[in-house]
Design goal:
This protein is α/β, with parallel strands linked by helices and 281 residues long. 28% of the residues lie in helices and 25% in strands. It has one domain (8-279): Alpha-Beta Complex (Spore Coat Polysaccharide Biosynthesis Protein SpsA, Chain A), CATH 3.90.550.10.
């Protein structure tokens, strides 16, 4: 079955980010800044560049009001003060967030679901129609220079039989033991067999690293359920995607941008340095 092209995106930030404590005691991880923008906004902008019309942000109970305030909260006192000071241009980025972004709905992760990175996606099920494909972004994965979401949608247009599409980036051999590495079923067709989590370097099936950019069909929800937990009793997105390969092809696309993770303070610092050098000139 060919589903409708994605017009919705699910962006996840539903963990407690313990590697970032104490700062994440107060704010969600994806509200940490790159330049003057929070990481979450970069994910939203990537979706906008691909024509996404509706975004569902899955947050923690403490994070939900913070995201709602950021994307929907009016601040007339700041606008009035800047206008009085003759600095109205400084408010333009705020107006863009409040007025020009697509529909953004912020929800909490379903507390009845098990721990795992698949649970935020499962929590968004009521917002996804049975006839529509959708995209998923992990907010701690940042892509510079191009929109992976656009690449995913273009690939889905080209593959009528796709059950899912995932993005990959080629990585140096010496770091392959730090990531989920893709094993291809067919190098010619670029179809997935499975993803090997943190293999020994000598056992890595390729140099293609999987990260949090996926196009999924509603069929994934038959596998994203509490009865399909994996390692450590967690609900894993990559397990559900691997299960989908039994039903049809899952295609792999190489990113046209540059992927960096902000999942821990050290890599976040590297992403900040890259952003400052490339975008704050």
């Amino acid at each position: 079955m060919k589903y409708q092209l994605p017009k919705k995106a699910v962006i996840t930030d539903a963990g407690f980010a313990s590697r970032y404590l104490p700062i994440t005691k107060t704010i969600p991880k994806a509200m940490l800044p790159l330049g003057a923008k929070p990481i979450m906004q970069l994910a939203v902008e990537e979706c906008i560049a691909a024509g996404i019309e509706e975004i569902i942000i899955v947050a923690t109970p403490k994070g939900r009001p913070i995201y709602e305030n950021y994307f929907h909260g009016e601040v007339p006192e700041i606008e009035a003060l800047l206008e009085k000071q003759g600095k109205s241009e400084r408010f333009a980025p705020v107006r863009e967030v409040l007025e020009d972004f697509p529909k953004i709905t912020v929800i909490e992760q379903d507390p009845s679901l098990p721990y795992g990175n698949g649970s935020p996606i499962a929590s968004a099920r009521p917002y996804i129609g049975d006839d529509e494909a959708f995209v998923v972004l992990y907010s701690d994965d940042v892509v510079f220079g191009d929109s992976d979401v656009k690449t995913l949608i273009e690939s889905y247009e080209a593959h009528d039989d796709a059950k899912a599409i995932i993005i990959a980036q080629e990585m140096p051999r010496e770091v392959l033991d730090k990531y989920g590495i893709i094993r291809l079923r067919s190098e010619e067709d670029m179809t997935l067999e499975n993803i090997v989590e943190k293999p020994k370097i000598e056992d890595a099936p390729s140099n293609l690293t999987s990260y949090g950019r996926y196009l999924l069909t509603p069929e994934v929800f038959q596998y994203l359920n509490p009865d399909n937990t994996g390692l450590d009793g967690e609900l894993w997105t990559v397990d559900a995607i691997t299960d989908l390969t039994k039903d049809g092809p899952v295609y792999v696309e190489k990113t046209k941008g540059t992927w960096m993770t902000t999942g821990d303070p050290k890599n976040y610092a590297k992403a900040c340095e890259y952003y400052n050098e490339e975008y704050l000139k």
